[in-house]
Design a protein that fits this description.
Radius of gyration: 22 Å
Strand content: 25-35%
CATH architecture: 6 Propeller
Largest sheet: 5 strands, antiparallel
Low-confidence stretches: 1-29, 497-572
Number of strands: 29
Structural class: mainly beta
Number of domains: 1
Shape: globular
CATH topology: Neuraminidase
Helix content: under 10%
Mean pLDDT: 80
Oligomer: single chain
């Protein structure tokens, strides 16, 4: 971990020398080779908190049954933020409640990582009966989701949360969900609701099975540019689903705090349908060196054709936004599921802004090639504040054997000081090895097991923007098998139905064979906001056909399809 931080610091100051040698790979293909080493460490451990166990004789959580219990199952999705001026980090991910991962029951948790060493993890308080002291719903919820964290300049860490009530099988819990802001002044150990405890997007009393006003895909950005006129302002953004883009549409909303989370302006819609269409989501707010606020969104057309990524800029503290500029079109795998596996694609894009060079922006995204039948990671950038963008280029440098394409997907981009930029992504170029972390049936399979790769860039502040430094490097120590966990617990399969899957949800068993977590905690220095690298299927991808999926899930549960080991298909949420 420390070596990776040092490498990016060197990249920002001068140049990072990645010694690239010929890769030892299969005939006709190439793998990675580099002299830079990376450390993978365990960040999570069993902990305890409050939640809703599924009572005996039931397949769903029941109101009034919340109580203390363990978080001793899988962890899913992830994000990291670094406290400015230190090597201390706070991470966040979903912690599955109790000892099972079969059910769609999880809460956001926080990790304390001090000086590069994980020191503890805990549930984010304020959304369960134990920490709130009441069974009332709300403030007690069956789930909280979508990890995202960022620091201000004084050491306060913020997270925009989506608490919601379970929607599967016969549940009819009220209300459906809301958008909240919480913050912590002690590295994520204890959390307080911001905005005076009032939701940024308030709940209504509709059933958890409603098909309209479904909040999702929330994110946070904090201005930690020292001396900036908007220093420590907090920007929360999220999407509200009102059916498919052919129906009520999906709108992106934002609320701003100018007093470190104590109060927020009323949330406003920032995605004009006349510019981005009726179905825009996957919002990422970012802040550049001058304090300009940017948002990237993806627009999903009602006819299911290629989607479009847009970026807009605000120079007045997010009070108004300029036009949404179309950056590129992007394709999603058929059925939103990658070949050979049961996990689906996740959020299309990731976005970063330089904390050093005003107007330098970096966008990476996954793109499916319907002709070749493979996914690639692509990169485009702007050096003029988002008005014009470079022609997208492929980031992954694998050379596949003839007729044996492999997928690279779920990218994340980070921008650090002095022009350091890095793109990380999931990579299936390497065949599954014979290893305790791999199921015996999967040994030797191609385009199947997953590694994490990284590409470094250096931006010198010129119109050329960020240029690649060296080649792709492998930063995961072990492949991981997307069919893990293969075990049963209490007679229940711990493998989720494919509509609920995330590659990180697939359990710890495979890397526990090596004493590691499923997703290695790799660090970058990016814009004060390093990340746990992106999770396959991270944060459900479902804007296309969201209403269709909601109604289908209802039909399936009414028909009794949901059984032990086969949870329901999800809506957009989670």
């Amino acid at each position: 971990m420390t070596r990776f931080l040092t490498a990016l610091a060197v990249l920002g100051g001068a140049a990072l020398a990645l010694a690239v040698a010929p890769g030892a790979g299969r005939p006709g293909g190439s793998l990675w080779s580099t002299s830079v080493s990376f450390s993978n460490v365990v960040a999570s451990s069993p902990t305890a908190g409050g939640g809703y166990p599924v009572p005996p004789g039931s397949r769903v959580p029941l109101a009034g049954t919340c109580g203390p219990g363990p978080f001793n199952a899988n962890h899913s999705e992830s994000w990291l933020a670094v406290k400015p001026g230190t090597e201390d980090l706070v991470g966040s991910s979903k912690f599955f409640f109790d000892k099972y991962s079969t059910f769609y029951m999880f809460y956001l948790g926080a990790y304390q990582i001090l000086g590069g060493t994980p020191s503890g993890n805990n549930q984010v308080q304020g959304y369960d009966c134990v920490s709130t002291g009441t069974q009332a719903m709300p403030p007690s919820w069956t789930d909280t989701t979508d990890p995202n964290v960022d620091f201000d300049t004084k050491g306060r860490v913020y997270q925009t949360l989506l608490p919601f009530n379970s929607f599967f099988d016969a549940t009819k819990l009220h209300p459906d969900g809301e958008i909240d802001m919480s913050y912590s002044d002690d590295m994520g150990r204890h959390w307080v609701k911001g905005n005076g405890g009032v939701a940024l997007e308030p709940p209504n009393n509709a059933s958890a099975k409603q098909a309209g006003h479904v909040e999702d895909k929330q994110w946070v950005a904090v201005n930690h540019i020292l001396g900036n006129r908007f220093q420590d302002h907090v920007y929360a953004a999220w999407a509200v689903f009102n059916g498919s883009s052919a129906g009520g549409g999906i709108k992106v909303r934002m609320a701003v705090s100018r007093d470190r989370g104590q109060t927020f302006d009323k949330g406003v819609t920032i995605s004009p349908p006349s510019q981005v269409g009726a179905g825009a989501t996957f919002v990422y707010p970012e802040i550049d060196a001058a304090g300009n606020v940017y948002v990237a969104v993806v627009s999903f057309p009602p006819n299911g054709t290629s989607s479009t990524i847009y970026v807009a800029r605000s120079s007045d503290d997010a009070r108004t936004f300029g036009p949404f500029v179309p950056i590129t079109t992007v394709n999603i795998p058929p059925g939103e599921v990658y070949a050979n596996t049961r996990f689906r694609s996740g959020i299309v894009e990731n976005f970063a802004a330089s904390p050093t060079y005003t107007g330098h922006l970096y966008l990476t995204y996954e793109d499916w090639d319907p002709i070749l039948g493979q996914g690639d990671v692509k990169f485009t950038q702007s050096t003029d504040g988002g008005f014009t963008w470079s022609t997208p280029v492929v980031v992954n440098d694998n050379v596949d054997a003839l007729g044996m394409p492999t997928d690279q997907f779920q990218p994340s981009v980070a921008a650090g000081p002095n022009g350091a930029v890095a793109v990380a992504f999931y990579d299936r170029r390497r065949a599954c090895p014979s290893d305790p972390s791999i199921l015996a049936a999967d040994v030797g399979r191609t385009n199947f097991c997953i590694d994490t790769s990284l590409q470094a860039y250096k931006d010198s502040g010129t119109a050329a923007g960020a240029v690649p430094v060296g080649a792709n490097v492998r930063i995961s120590q072990f492949n991981w098998d997307p069919e893990q966990p293969g075990q049963h617990l209490g007679g229940l399969s711990q493998y989720l139905h494919r509509r609920l899957l995330r590659a990180r949800d697939l359990g710890r068993k495979h890397l526990r064979a090596h004493g590691l977590d499923p997703l290695p905690l790799e660090r970058d220095r990016g814009r004060g906001r390093p990340r746990l690298l992106p999770a396959a299927g991270t944060r459900d991808s479902g804007p296309r056909g969201i209403r269709r999926r909601l109604l289908r899930a209802q039909r399936e549960t009414r028909a009794g399809r949901v059984a032990h080991g086969d949870p329901p298909r999800s809506t957009s949420r989670g």
